[in-house]
Amino acid sequence: MNVQLFVPCFIDQLYPNVAFNMLKVLEKAGCIVRYNSNQTCCGQPAFNAGFWGEARDVCQKFLEDFSHEGYIVAPSASCIGFLKNYYSKIFEGTQYLEKVKNLSDRAFEFSDFMINVLNIDDVGAIFNEKVTYHDSCAALRECKIKTEPRRLLSKVKGLELVEMNDVETCCGFGGTFAVKFEAISIAMADQKITNAEATKADYIVSTDMSCLMHIDGCIQHKHKNLKVIHLADVLASGW
Are 52 and 90 in contact (CB under 8 A)? Predict the structure, then answer.
């Protein structure tokens, strides 16, 4: 199985171990993995900020960078959701629509790829902790991912998964939303943290490091004992 790694900007700059751990799991699953070091942003930040023209230029480069055959896998439902749901709008009426469809069909969020393409749910991970899971808006609503990460977590030895209340409610990040509407964003994160604490879990797990980054900032500000961890980091533990 040939796989091209798509490493989102914030993972590359702030959480590179998430990408390395995803690579580790994919290779253990038998994938031949390639990384194109010329890759840059998928264009989502510019698009969400209203700069559609500038975003189109970035997206066009992304189409070229990932033009080779093979699956595209990323540790971010947010970025994959953007590719699958908005590239067709950005390139509507242009010569790139066929490339967009081809890319969309080949692009997968990590847990979605593990379960629905590789059909692998147990990689031999060991994580002796109590965790709760956060459904990111992009995973749940844009990529229709719900059971996949939970199925993977259920196979991790030593891991206890406890669901929190209002698990499908947004954490408040939303990219620039967290900047433009800071007070609302923080209140939403605080509610998410309160619900997570009620489970007595040690960790919050998610498919999206962007959500976890926002939640963790609020955790640190309030000096809470909760920790955050990406699904790829859990699956790469213990072996």
Answer: yes
